[in-house]
DNA sequence: TTAATTACAGACTTCACATATCCATGATAG
DNA sequence: CTATCATGGATATGTGAAGTCTGTAATTAA
């Protein structure tokens, strides 16, 4: 039971894009260098973020990936759901079992984590990082 | 990213043992029948619970698994840690990275789920189940 | 129009781990 | 002594993560 490396890459890339200028596209080549991951693999991950509507892409020369719309609102949970999917972490006895007490408690615990992730926005971390770079 | 089936088996087995009489051992054969899992595999899982000190085992005739000590205090987290291990869900850049803001936030979110799991005791669910069986 | 650049899609490989199964061994009650 | 029961190790087997490779489509620059 681990978060995938892909989620890690996605979170760091989003953080990077918010710390950099949000208006012009950045190529996957450039984005991949900071994280020691191959461009083709990172591209697969970023395509998931595109399909989730979190970023947009542009083909051709001077193309790349760019933040989109209300990117200040993007939470950890948005990114995790885009990469890992939205299925529950716990598969209990049978597909739909609303009576199982164990299932209910596990869902409740997962919801607690999700609420924390939903209330944490990438932009806030990017600002904190920028701030700590300006001051010592 | 999923909780293992083994965790599911362990939780249900503990629930079953608390609902039944806690003083006499139950064989893995009997325990496995309720969950459609092979006795040999369930045995491997229960051995983890023994090593974690949550239950005790007795070999030989009339042997089996039995609750132990202050079993009323056993939480979901105790069982999950015994089966899945205690490692963090999120591996970030490098082994020890206390400066990474993303890492910090992920640990914090995981802690929120763990706190919920730590505060949920199996015995309470077993009692609720028993109660709902007595009344309609 | 051509060439260079860039994202995208699919097939494929590799590897780690979950999920078992089987059998030998050891402990214990009757 | 024998039947019963847990434990350990070896061994499949399936699944998903992680990553590579290659062709295709889109777009810009020349």
Automatic annotation (TrEMBL), chains A, B:
<protein>
    <submittedName>
        <fullName>Rrf2 family transcriptional regulator</fullName>
    </submittedName>
</protein>
<dbReference type="InterPro" id="IPR000944">
    <property type="entry name" value="Tscrpt_reg_Rrf2"/>
</dbReference>
<dbReference type="InterPro" id="IPR036390">
    <property type="entry name" value="WH_DNA-bd_sf"/>
</dbReference>
<dbReference type="GO" id="GO:0003700">
    <property type="term" value="F:DNA-binding transcription factor activity"/>
</dbReference>
<dbReference type="GO" id="GO:0005829">
    <property type="term" value="C:cytosol"/>
</dbReference>
<dbReference type="InterPro" id="IPR036388">
    <property type="entry name" value="WH-like_DNA-bd_sf"/>
</dbReference>
<dbReference type="InterPro" id="IPR030489">
    <property type="entry name" value="TR_Rrf2-type_CS"/>
</dbReference>
<dbReference type="Pfam" id="PF02082">
    <property type="entry name" value="Rrf2"/>
</dbReference>
């Amino acid at each position: 039971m681990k978060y995938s490396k892909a989620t890690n890459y996605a979170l760091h890339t989003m953080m990077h894009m918010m710390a950099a200028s949000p208006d012009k596209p950045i190529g996957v080549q450039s984005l991949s260098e900071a994280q020691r991951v191959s461009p083709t693999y990172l591209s697969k991950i970023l395509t998931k973020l595109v399909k989730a509507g979190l970023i947009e892409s542009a083909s051709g020369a001077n193309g790349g990936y760019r933040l989109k719309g209300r990117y200040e609102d993007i939470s950890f949970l948005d990114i995790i759901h885009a990469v890992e999917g939205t299925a529950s972490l716990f598969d209990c006895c049978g597909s739909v079992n609303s009576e199982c007490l164990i299932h209910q408690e596990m869902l409740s615990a997962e919801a607690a984590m999700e609420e924390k992730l939903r209330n944490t926005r990438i932009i806030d971390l990017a600002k904190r990082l920028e701030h700590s770079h300006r001051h010592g």
